[in-house]
Specification:
By secondary structure, the chain is an alpha/beta fold. 33% of the residues lie in helices and 19% in strands.
């Protein structure tokens, strides 16, 4: 009997064109910090392209300040709109706002793409050999890493799904 781990917890989806794709369910700042620290231990010299889909408006509002400091290990950071998980939007709480807060408080560039499905097309041309792409979140982002991997393997043009 062998242990295969748990799906969506630091799951290495594969590698293509020298780019490693990792998926993790992390959607809380503490989980994000732990996941990125583990990744840095595995790949200390590689560039991390981190894709994050915030989960729930209430969680994003409550942890906004913590999220702004959770991505220190990311060399390139992409955010999407919040995955609502059945919640009604909260005025003033959005993925765009979180991206702006990280940019303002950390003085770093943050890319914002409204739809999670647009991420593969948005990032594919900026990926470089030796990159590690890490998808984080509890919503639809779980499908994005596989899509990026497929695009790299087939050299498929960037199209949203």
């Amino acid at each position: 009997m062998s242990y295969e781990g748990v799906g969506r917890r630091f799951e290495i989806l594969g590698e293509a064109e020298g780019i490693t794709i990792v998926d993790d369910y992390a959607h809380h700042p503490t989980e994000i910090l732990a996941t990125l620290a583990a990744a840095r231990t595995c790949w200390p010299e590689r560039r991390f392209v981190v894709l994050f889909e915030p989960h729930r408006y209430s969680r994003t509002r409550m942890l906004m300040d913590d999220f702004t400091t959770a991505f220190g290990e990311a060399d390139e950071l992409w955010l999407t709109e919040i995955y609502p998980a059945g919640e009604t939007p909260i005025v003033g709480v959005s993925g765009r706002r979180l991206a702006r807060n990280i940019r303002d408080k950390q003085g770093r560039q943050v890319h914002y793409v409204e739809s999670c499905g647009d991420l593969p097309g948005a990032i594919i041309s900026s990926l470089q050999e030796d990159d590690v792409v890490i998808t984080l979140g509890a919503g639809t982002i779980g499908r994005i890493g596989t899509k990026i991997l497929d695009m790299l393997k087939t050299k498929e043009p960037a199209i949203a799904f």
